[in-house]
Amino acid sequence: MIIAAMLLLQACLGLGDEKEDGGHEGETASQAITAADGGTVSSPSGAASVDIPAGALAEDTTITLTSLGTEDQPDSENLGSDVYEFGPDGTEFLEPVTISLVLNGDVPEKMKAVLAVLDGETWTAVEGSTVEGEEVSGQVTHFSKYVIHFVGDDAIIESGDEVCKDLEFSACGGDVVGSWKILSYCTSQTVVGENPFAEQPSCADDLFEVDVTWLGSITYKDDGTYSNEMGMEMSIYLELTDECLTELAGDDASDLEGFCTDIGNTEGMASCVYESSLCKCTGKPNTMMMDDSPEGTYELDGNDIIIHTSEGQTQSITYCVEGTRMVAETPADDEGNVSYVVAERL
Questions:
Q1: Number of domains the chain is built from
Q2: Which of 90, 121, 152 is the last residue of a domain?
Q3: Residue closest to 34 by CA, chosen among 9, 62, 5, 69
Q4: Which segments within 163-223 are labelled E, that is strand?
Q5: Are residues 302 and 242 part of one domain?
Q6: How many degrees, rounded to 5, is the angle at CA 107 between CA 103 and CA 109?
Q7: Per the domain annotation, does 118 fall within a domain?
Q8: Please, are residues 151 and 78 in contact by the beta-carbon 8 Å criterion?
Q9: Which residues face 29 on adjacent strands?
Q10: Residue 87 lies in a domain
Q11: pLDDT tier at 313 (50, 70, 90 boundaries)?
Q12: Residue 244 is part of which domain span?
């Protein structure tokens, strides 16, 4: 059961195995770029690059980039890549160029990764920077020192609810045979949602919330086999400011209320209502069900359920059945996160 939940999180929300950190301090790149044609300059490792469109340079220029690592850099504990110095230092562009850096490791809990530029001794986020896979990119108009910076993320929510609130667990074993409805998945990890309008600078900091409801059931049969159907329903809630709406609306900015209402149709929202200079949008619920390892075998060992999936995975789950409720605990992961599945006998 816990294996299914963890696989579901990884498949649907991008929570994968931790990637080993790896810096590239000292690597350099240099390439002559013509103003008329533009071009891309990348580090030997591929961890950093700058894409310069045609016409962005005032004249033909030899572009350089150098990795400075992270040691002795400002706020070094919150850096997600080496610091890269792009040159010639101070070069200004006639139109934006795109800098892309690759994450050295995972994004910390309750944080998000942004492209940032060094301003004195402070990292300042590049407006509108985006994350795609392990790459963080942003458009800039001048050269300086750039890095991936981890900052607090208001768009991250705890995957908890009233079922998980003040949950106490003590292993006690018990009779698992029967069918169990999943009430909730309680975890110290986070569920991350992506603001669909975050690429617009005026929208990036607007309110964005994700609501998660866990679905499905698991059946333990008396012949030592099990089957499960697990998933979740996710929905989002947005509050977009007038500044955001104006940027999104473009030529239609004269009627923000009407534009807000239309977002529901054009962006797949269930409804959008304009109130007090805010466009309040509720997203259509998105249901995702688990297909991996839906069945297998199990055995009981004291207060543990030993799960053997049809995919060849094995995991020991500590559990307790009290009355009609079962709570199952996973072993702590490498970061100390412990998760619980709370279920009710059908």
A1: 2
A2: 152
A3: 62
A4: 178-187, 190-192, 207-220
A5: yes
A6: 175
A7: yes
A8: yes
A9: 65
A10: yes
A11: confident
A12: 156-345
Residues 179, 269 share a domain: yes
State the pairing for strand pair 48-52/304-309. unpaired
CB contact at 8 A, 57 and 94: yes
Token pair recorded at residue 216:
């499905």
CB 343 within 8 A of CB 181: yes
Give the residue among 312, 222, 212 at the shortest CA–CA distance from 12. Answer: 212
Q: What whole-number distance in Å separates Cα of residue 64 and Cα of residue 143?
A: 10
Query: Tokens standing for 79?
Result: 């850096």
Residue 174 has which token pair? 């018990």
Residues of the chain with pLDDT > 70, as a percent, come to: 84
User: Comparing 20 with 287, which gets the higher pLDDT?
Assistant: 287
For residue 314, give the amino acid letter.
Answer: T
What CATH number is given to the structural domain containing 125?
2.60.220.30
Q: For residue 257, what is the enclosing H or E element?
A: helix 256-266
**What is the C-alpha separation between 111 and 192, in angstroms, rounded?**
10
**Domain assignment of residue 217, yes or no:** yes
Which residue type occupies 290?
A: M
Q: How does pLDDT run across 204-258, given as a tens digit for each residue?
A: 888 887 777 778 899 999 999 999 888 878 788 889 999 999 999 888 889 999 9
Residue located via tokens 């894409």: 51
**Among residues 152, 175, 198, which one ends one of the domains?**
152
One-letter amino acid at 287 equals T
Question: For the segment 191-213, what is each residue's pLDDT rounded down to a tens digit?
Answer: 556 677 888 889 888 888 777 77
Instruction: Number of helices (H) and strands (E) in the chain: give both, helices first.
Output: 3, 24
33 and 173 assigned to the same domain: no
Rounded to whole angstroms, how far apart are CA atoms 147 and 40? 18
Same domain flag for 148 and 160 = no
Does the pLDDT value for residue 152 go beyond 90?
no
Are residues 309 and 321 both part of a single domain? Answer: yes
Q: How far apart are CA 40 and CA 97, in angstroms?
A: 10
Report the pLDDT value the prediction gives residue 11, as an integer from 0 to 100: 35
100 and 178 in a single domain? The answer is: no
Please name which of 130, 149, 148, 152 lies closest in space to residue 139, comparing C-alpha atoms.
130
Instruction: Specify the pTM.
Output: 0.48
